[in-house]
Amino acid sequence: MEKKKVVGFSFGRKMSNTEVMIKEALLECERAGMEIQFVRCDDLNIHICTGCCACVGGLMSGRGRGTCVHKDDEFYIIEEALMSADAVIVGSPTYEFAPTGNFKVVCDRIGPSHDKTFRGPAVEKGIEEGRDPQTYPDVRSVKPRVGALITVGGARTENWLSLSLPNMYEFTMPMGIDVIDKYKYFGAMNISHVLGRPDVMDRMTQLGKHIVEALNAKTEEERTKYRGDDQGTCPVCHEDILTVSHKGNKVECPVCGIEGELTIEDGDIKVIFSEEEQNRSRLHDAGKWEHSNEIRDGAMTQKKVENLNELKQKYIGVGEEK
């Protein structure tokens, strides 16, 4: 039987807190018989996404592979690691309120180009037509995966990391990777290295065990079960962050894009998300299809601006050095 593979993606410094925490979790996976791989993403030169939409356009035509116009070979290291993975452990330091800039660069490149609701139909069409596999997306694009998220911040005050884990869903969301655990290590400035915090390292061992449990699960429900310490306010992403709409008692989970109702029970704030809303979370297939169909509709019905080049002339060179 082929071994399950767990890949760690670090956006932190070499052998610093983030990297060592990921590797502790990977070691636990290896002890359980899993194949492991580690990718230090900051060692790779990845071009920013320029928003040209060529990747998505090719997928929607049914004739593209979701490849990027930027032929930076080092992105292939991340892509191949993702394709081969059955589980991912993704870690990023928090330097300024959210994950690092390089984390965002990689997420923008993964984004729509690897979205399973774009890639899946293109794979099906390629197979149905009997085409060369090199002419449609990698069939591994749509296999089920689980994942865990880790962030590290120096601040002693936890809320300086409040946008970190919510943003880290950008890595897992496109491919529908089910996040089954996550951990936020704050107050890292208190000690020179996380190896001086056995409690945190024990938690990373536990995170690795949670990945193993999910990969060995016999049912879909058990595989995708959330195993983190805090169930959070949102029952889907398990985050506490909310957007207040100022319309009655409606609130929204900005990670999932779903609406809930805020209530006060015995002096405690509670938010109720209906089953219908939970099902349309952008972390689930229904929510992802809702979004990708919106993109398809926009591309098909987009209104063209007349005399666009002429209208742009007014802005050419404005504020630029001569």
Global morphology? globular
Low-confidence parts: none
Radius of gyration: 21 Å
* Major sheet description: 5 strands, parallel
Q: What do we call the CATH topology of the largest domain?
A: Rossmann fold
Q: How many E strands?
A: 9
- Main sheet: strand order: 2-1-3-4-5
- Tell me which CATH architecture of the largest domain applies here: 3-Layer(aba) Sandwich
Keywords: Flavoprotein, FMN
Protein name: Flavodoxin family protein
Organism: Ruminococcus hominis
InterPro entries: Flavoprotein-like_sf, FMN_Rdtase-like_dom, ISF_SsuE-like
Task: Give an overview in words.
The structure is a single chain. The protein has 322 residues and is of the alpha/beta class. It has two domains: 225 residues, Flavodoxin domain (Rossmann fold), CATH 3.40.50.360; 75 residues, no CATH class. Helices cover 35% and strands 17% of the residues. It has eleven helices and nine strands. The strands form two sheets. A five-stranded parallel sheet has the order 2-1-3-4-5, sandwiched between helices. Strands 6-7-8-9 form a four-stranded antiparallel sheet, with no helix packed on it. The protein is globular and about 65 Å long. It starts with a strand and ends in a 10-residue tail after the last helix. The mean pLDDT is 95. It holds the Pfam family FMN_red.
Features:
four-stranded antiparallel β-sheet; flavoprotein; 322 residues; Flavodoxin family protein; 2 domains; FMN; five-stranded parallel β-sheet; 9 strands; alpha/beta; globular; Rossmann fold; 11 helices
